[in-house]
Amino acid sequence: MISVEDAILAVKNHSKPLLKETIKPVVKAGGYILFKDINSPINMPPFRQSAMDGYALNLHDSLSYNLIDEIKAGDGHQPILEPGDAVRIFTGAPVPDSANAIMMQEKVRVNGKEITIEQHIPINHNIRPLGEQVKKGAIALKKDTKLTPAAVGYLTSLGITTVSVYKKPLIAIITTGNELVEAGQNLTHGKIYESNSTMLQNALYHLKFYDISIHKIEDDYEKTKAKLESVIQDNDLVIVTGGISVGDYDFVGKALLELKTEVIFYKVKQKPGKPLFFGKKDDTLIFALPGNPAAALTCFYVYVNIALQKMMNREIIELPRVKAISKSNFEKKGDRPQFLKAIYNTDEVEILEGQNSSMLQTFALSNALVFVPETIVKIEKKDTVEVILLPA
């Protein structure tokens, strides 16, 4: 049995960036990482632009100007201003080539076709120069930049419609168990609704991984082996839930061994999630998670998330860990380190009731996990504890 720390290190060491390129529409590229530099196809702004509502001036010695025209955002005409002329102008509108400053409207007195400004202003005052954000041909965003909503908006403002990004992994989720039925079906005696696939799929969606297939198999060895062989061949990451323990109908481990999967570790000294398997076959990573939902989700956040972030070549690959003051008492049974469902709020954390590995109700309320190492047996109120912050 491997320790939590060694298991995390093993996942880090055996997870590699995919480093594969794919082309995505900019509008659907949020959360992806740029595969190569992007050069701007235009100057931005593409013309001298008014920074505010006011009056564009051709400066002269007097504070009085002749008002000769008006320019709104989107207008394309270019009035010619002689020294002493002014045009009404609005934020974002193109500044005429013959104008060399803009006075904000609050500092202008208007009398018919004559305006008077409060004070002299310097050349180019309140004018956004051509290419102020980025020049045509210059690098707009560098390779390995994460495409945030702001980055997507920026690229769209440059007229860019597609981008080259790192390909995200193809992911398969396999659930096992004769007792499982889909929500919406009749629940007969001995059956339970299958929730792990929906739970893990949504956890992946939350982390912006969308190329996911769902597979469900009965407790049959040959069917288990055939399905594993197929999905391992077709995916970059395979997540199995259930069937990894040592029961008479737990066939996942045996099938993986027969398929010559490299076993990196099996069983972690932790609670919940002791029967966790991590391995690989060729370039495909394989996690077999416990069937109990809370255990499966805990293992996903602590281990699978690391593999996913490494595959995307990201620098930050673990969920944030912080220190917090416990608002709860807790006494650990046994010597295994534990991950406790909890609510974190401003440097304080409350350990929740209902820590059983089969219970999702408590997890549904949680935004954090309190990590209790092997050396700690009891937590008392006001103790400082380590907290893993779950994705918001």
Structure, described:
The chain is α+β, with helices and mostly antiparallel strands and 392 residues long. It has 4 domains: 160 residues, Molybdenum Cofactor Biosythetic Enzyme, Chain A, CATH 3.40.980; 46 residues, Molybdopterin biosynthesis moea protein, domain 2; 80 residues, Beta Complex (Molybdopterin biosynthesis moeA protein, domain 3), CATH 2.170.190.11; 69 residues, MoeA, C-terminal, domain IV (Beta-clip, Beta Barrel), CATH 2.40.340.10. Helix content is 19%, strand content 30%. The strands form 8 sheets. A 6-stranded mixed sheet has the order 7-4-6-5-9-8, with no helix packed on it. Strands 16-13-17-20-19-18 form a 6-stranded mixed sheet, sandwiched between helices. The model has no long low-confidence stretch (mean pLDDT 92).
Give a topology summary.
Blueprint: H1 4-14, E1 21-25, E2 38-39, E3 49-50, E4 54-57, E5 64-71, E6 85-89, E7 101-104, E8 108-111, E9 114-117, E10 127-128, E11 139-141, H2 149-157, E12 162-166, E13 171-176, E14 180-181, E15 192-193, H3 196-206, E16 212-217, H4 221-234, E17 237-241, H5 252-258, E18 262-266, E19 277-281, E20 284-289, H6 293-311, E21 321-326, E22 330-331, E23 338-345, E24 348-351, H7 361-365, E25 368-372, E26 378-379, E27 384-389
Parallel strand pairs: 5-6, 13-16, 13-17, 14-15, 17-20, 21-24
Antiparallel strand pairs: 1-12, 2-11, 3-10, 4-6, 4-7, 5-9, 8-9, 18-19, 19-20, 21-27, 22-26, 23-24, 23-25, 25-27
Helix pairs in contact: 1-6, 3-6, 4-5
